[in-house]
Amino acid sequence: MNDAEIRARLASIFREVFDDESIALFDAMTAKDIEEWDSLNHINLIVAVEGSFKVKFTTKEVTNLANVGEFVALIASKLS
Amino acid sequence: MLMADASHLNYSALLRQSKRLDDSACTRTMRLAVLSDAAVPQIVPLLKALLVHKGIRAEVYLAEFDSIELEIFNPQSDLYAFAPDAVIVLNSLNALRLKYYRQAAERSHFVDGVVRAAAALWDSFKSRSPALVIQSNYVLPYERQFGNFDHKVGETFYPMVARVNAVLAELARDRPQVLINDVEALASYVGRKHWSDEKLWTLAKAFCALEHLPLVAQNLVDILLSNAGHVVKCVVVDLDNTLWGGVIGDDGMEGIALGPFGEGEPFFRLQHYLLDLKRRGIILAVCSKNDQATALAPFQSHPEMVLCEEDIAVFVANWNPKPDNIRLIKETLNIGYDSMVFLDDNVFERQLVRETLPEVIVPELPEDPADYVRAIAELNLFEVSSFSDEDRRRAALYRENAQRQTLQTGFTDITEYLRSLDMRVTMRRFDAFHMPRIAQLIQRSNQFNLTSRRYNLAECTAMAECADECIPMYVTLADKFGDNGLISVIILRPRSSVMEIDSWLMSCRVLGRGVEQYAMNQVVAIARAHGCESVIGTYIPTAKNGMVKDFYQQFGFDRVEERDGATISRLHVSTYQARAVHMKEAA
Q: How distant is the Cα of A59 from the closest Cα of chain B, in angstroms?
């Protein structure tokens, strides 16, 4: 799966978790950019990404995620 | 779960649904408080979505993380201000494990300390609220400090958690307002390896892996629904290739597969499972496309049959469409479609019944009969929130009723028939002995129920103890065919010159016997004894109680007021003419 495919699938997961079809991802995007992105939805997001990409993140990886760009890179590293 | 399959239990699908729930069709509301030593905000939308499927709108109060004691021990807490109908207590193994680690010394007292603390919470809550408590038990841990030898040591974490669960269940047995939410059964079923998500506990104090949280929510909904009177009362079962292998009309008595070994074993096992259901009070009925005599033959003379003719309350074998026959069974038993389960190996019949009678629960049966029992058991269709001697005897009661109906056809005059029954009736004030059955009848009577006020056991007990403000009565009936048990509840509230009928409900299986006439005579007599000039009765319509719409008018009550859909009727005591009854008061 290349970077663009990861981004596309991640975007559709974001749209589903935050129930907002208009969400467009960008690398610097953080929780501040999406109103619904609270701690509860953060967990829902992690679980949905793990399920969709069939990967498992460690606690530290989840805690250290700074923005969407890092999220894409993390998924890519798990898939490679 | 009162649903024919579990495919709806998908975490993200339920979350999506919960965001746009249409509760306009909901006919009732439940107020639920959720207390937990884990963080469980995700359970709120799940509960709401699952309850809306069943026509119930949920108002949920989610307490702060780990505030169970603060909420329950403080009479001024938000929990009591919320006034829940039920409080859901979710205790997590991870939180218990911490307590265990912290109690390095005196571990022999660990079990005792945990269960005493739980019981203290229940009892404190009970002293302040009549609401139901739904207490989770603990998922068994995966660590075994001594390996298999844990069980020989006894005081290690794993065997102690098992002991905590056992003692919690024992303590709950003595407290009817406490029901156990068997989370350990769910976790074992899924597999403990998959149940918990340690990372989510670390990050967010999650109760379990989120994908399994819908199972917890559904388990809670099962308990809430059964407590609200939504229970399965009857299993309607097909015969050929369902109760035995093969077709009796084609293969004959020697040709059908049935018995403890080989091809007949799955059917033998299903019959045992059904017999066990019957023994705990579920009515069994047969609905088969066969000639009556052919269908009955195995029940009468097949050596390996587990079920016998007496186990089946209504036996319908003919060539009519199955929905027609299920309707007949429903009418004979006087129960609702939504309390019936239909088992049939034939996908055509299942689909026909689903489409014609959507309220009937029709589980999908797997292709291999060896999986029948498991497929049915997985659905948890037979959840109840009480169990009385009455339940054990129900199948016999319904069979006696069927005999009464046969006898009835021999009489042309109903009075003569009623006299021939040799009925004995009692009407008494609530007492402790009958309390579980009283509360159960109040929860379960839907059709003959004038106001459908669902008092729980604690409220009934309080009524029994009240001196002046309320006269709570129950009625029992016996006849020459057997004892019908406690079949009616009438709650009166004297208000100076007026006797108000707060509740009047009756089991439909004694309909048309004159119990209501007898009871109304008594009610008027009680009103006179209290010096009341009139009796006031209220009818509150529901989807199911149309049969008693004109109940009070039958006795000469006049409609005096319509309020919020309810009809209020009044009877002047001086004008009441006692109704003829054909029953004697039992000594």
A: 6
Chain B residue with minimum CA distance to A52: B12
Neighboring chain B residues of A44 at a CB cutoff of 8 Å: 12, 15, 42, 210
Residue B94: its chain A contacts at CB < 8 A? none
Higher pLDDT residue, B481 or B194?
B194
3-class DSSP assignment, residue B296: helix
Predicted pLDDT of residue B460: 93
Answer whether B442's CB lies under 8 Å from B434's CB: no
Q: What pLDDT, on a 0 to 100 scale, did the predictor assign at position B528?
A: 94
Residues of chain A found within 8 Å of residue B11, distances taken between Cβ atoms:
47
Residue B19 with chain A: CB contacts under 8 Å: 19
Contacts of B204 in chain A (CB under 8 A): 39-40, 43
B426: three-class secondary structure by DSSP: strand
CA distance B553 to B559: 8
Flag if B203 and A40 touch (Cβ within 8 Å): no
pLDDT in tens, B21-65: 998 889 899 999 999 999 999 999 999 999 999 999 999 999 999
What are the tens digits of pLDDT across the range B512-522?
788 999 999 99
Burial class (CB in 10 A: 0-12, 13-18, 19+), B390: buried
Supply the pLDDT for residue B412.
47
The chain B residues in contact with chain A (CB within 8 A) are: 11-12, 15-16, 19, 41-42, 197, 199-200, 202-204, 206, 209-211
What are the chain B neighbours of A39 within 8 Å (beta carbons)?
204
Residue B413 pLDDT grade (very low, low, confident, very high; cuts 50, 70, 90): low
> Nearest-CA residue of chain B relative to A63?
B203
Torsion B351-B356-B358-B363 (CA) sign: negative
| CB-closest option in A16, A47, A57 to B210 | A47
For residue B502 the two structure tokens come to 């707060």
* CA dist., res. B175 & res. B123, Å (int): 9
Distance CA B402, CA B399 (A): 5
Q: What is the band of B363 on the pLDDT scale with cuts at 50, 70, 90?
A: very high
- B283-289/B534-539 β-pairing: unpaired
Beta bridge partners of A12: none
**Which pLDDT belongs to residue B3?**
59
Q: How many other CB atoms are there within 10 angstroms of residue B163's CB atom?
A: 17
* A57 CB within 8 Å of a chain B CB: yes
Query: Cβ contact (<8 Å) for A40 and B12?
Result: no
Backbone angles phi, psi at B351, to 5 degrees: -65, -40
Distance between CA atoms of B399 and B484, rounded to whole angstroms?
Answer: 11
Q: Which residues on adjacent β-strands are paired with residue B180?
A: B135
